[in-house]
Write a structure and sequence with these properties.
Elements: H1 2-33, H2 38-43, H3 58-67, H4 69-100, H5 104-118, H6 125-134, H7 140-163, H8 168-176, H9 181-192, H10 194-210, H11 213-218, H12 227-232, H13 243-264, H14 266-276
Helix pairs in contact: 1-13, 3-13, 4-5, 4-7, 4-10, 5-7, 7-10, 7-14, 8-9, 10-13, 10-14
Length: 279
């Protein structure tokens, strides 16, 4: 058995190393080109920024100035943080209710959440943008509510799977000690659910931070722009693009979420496994 594992281990290791390089290389390419002059980005995109090609931080400064990136960065942080906080709070409470109250209503709610995961966004984006416009939701607070709706399906699915594995005796002991249902949830259930919470936070934060389509459909672009929307505004007339500034802003956009992912990624597998195993 050990020999068989050894035989398959080396080819698989080599395969995944190559696959990892293929995934990481585009990001490295963006970083390299963010330090080049515009003329050299299209001419020699795969070469290192040496000698005359190197421009230092010029592309970053120009990108920040042209896109008002500081304001876009602030709106992206605001929308991401509060959207994820709303998803964690409301979806965890809903999942707890579904996992503890076994009725036709809770089963219907759970099935609707699963159904929401498989419906393509393109089928509902026109209706969504129309209703959001009618309800005056073209602002950061309005889009937080919309993100809550779109993020609820996966989040409730993961939380429900985990909370079904929590022994009822723990919650009953807390209530015997005098805890109300709300106190039981926040003092007992939520601390136990930490692996799933972290997993949901990572997945939802990466989606919301990088999302372009939903903010462009909902937000009033004259007042509010997220980072993906700001990068899009680097396109000039007749399809011209300031490639240097775009590379610089792309690096600024992806670095925070990469750092966030690397810091928290060890919790993803733990949370997924915890939600997949019952009892």
């Amino acid at each position: 058995m050990g020999v068989r594992k050894a035989k398959h281990g080396l080819p698989l290791t080599i395969f995944f190393i190559i696959l990892s390089i293929l995934y990481v290389y585009p990001i490295v390419l963006v970083v390299i080109n963010s330090f080049k002059k515009k003329a050299y980005i299209s001419r020699v995109p795969f070469e290192l920024p040496l000698d005359n090609m190197f421009v230092g931080m010029e592309n970053y400064i120009r990108g920040i100035e042209q896109t008002n990136l500081i304001a876009a960065f602030g709106w992206s942080i605001f929308i991401t943080v509060f959207s994820v906080a709303a998803i964690i709070l409301f979806c965890s409470m809903t999942a707890w209710y579904i996992s503890r109250v076994n009725t036709k209503v809770t089963k219907a709610i759970y099935m609707l959440c699963l159904f929401a995961m498989v419906v393509p966004f393109q089928m509902e984006m026109y209706t969504l943008s129309k209703i959001a416009n009618m309800l005056k939701m073209g602002n950061p607070w309005g889009i937080i509510v919309i993100y809550l709706g779109f993020g609820a399906g996966l989040s409730i699915f993961m939380f429900t799977g985990f909370m079904k594995s929590i022994p009822l005796e723990i919650e009953e002991a807390a209530m015997i000690d005098g805890c109300t249902p709300i106190q039981t949830f926040f003092r007992v259930v939520m601390p136990i659910s930490k692996p799933t919470c972290v997993t949901v936070i990572i997945l939802q934060a990466m989606w919301i931070w990088n999302d372009y389509l939903l903010p462009s459909l909902v937000l009033d672009q004259r007042k509010y722009k997220t980072i993906p929307m700001a990068v899009q505004y680097l396109k000039g007339g007749y399809g011209s693009v300031d490639m240097g500034a775009m590379m610089g802003t792309l690096v600024i956009a992806i670095v925070p979420i990469i750092i966030f992912y690397l810091f928290c990624q060890k919790y993803i597998i733990e949370g997924v496994v915890a939600g997949a195993v019952k009892g």
